[in-house]
Amino acid sequence: MKIGIVGLGLIGASFAKAYKEAGHNVLAYDIDESAILMGKLQGFVDGNLTREDLKDCDLVIICLYPEATVKYIEENASAFNKNGIVMDACGNKRVVCDSAFKIAEQNGFTFVGAHPMAGNKYSGLKHSRATLFNGAPMVLVPPVFDDMNFLDRIKDLLEPCQFGSFCLSHADKHDKMIAFTSQMAHLVSNAYVKSPSAADHHGFSAGSYKDMTRVAWLNPTMWSELFLENKDNLINEIDHLTEELNKYKKALVEDDRETLCSLLEEGRKRKEELDGSK
Fold it and tell me: Is the dihedral of CA 163, 230, 7, 43 positive or negative?
């Protein structure tokens, strides 16, 4: 296959490496020419992805921030392969899919929203690897949900990445869930390390601290865009967490051990229900 990768950050370069290792022809575009040069030197990029090349690509994966993704699709709408697939890899789906589905229909190409549930605390090409997606879930927001042949085709196109599972979702459901499972975790972790106590944590911290603060190390530019685009869902999660935390605070202030124990037991049981006992 001929694969087009737009954006050679952590996700884009990892896609490029996975497809190259599987023996496919990989063309890439990045606003930073040095990223393309590095990809060529390392052997996972075969050449520059130009507007002319788009018509020959079986799959184009756009790995940019949401607003930049929509802009790229708008600017190249008439150039995409009518028999190929155009896919994004953004962390929010409404802002991309609402525009991209309309543009695709108007210009005769097929767009599929996608969100690979993989990554790490580092960003950039130098931290990319061909195995980044191995075993990871992939959330798909397709234009249709009742065409199994089409969905099988998408899975076949993504086979070199070795995703562990596929989940179909509408864009609004995706963004509601991702506010809880991803964005809220990043926001809380980032706020948690601002405690004055954090400066003296060395020697006092173990697994709990590491788990709680792992994603505080984030890309502010990217995450601020994602947070603002999905602010309705994220604010709802913040409100709910604040309400719950105030219950614990009230019990502490009032030395109400019975209520505090009940709250902790409630949370423990909820976790057991969600994940099962181990």
Answer: negative
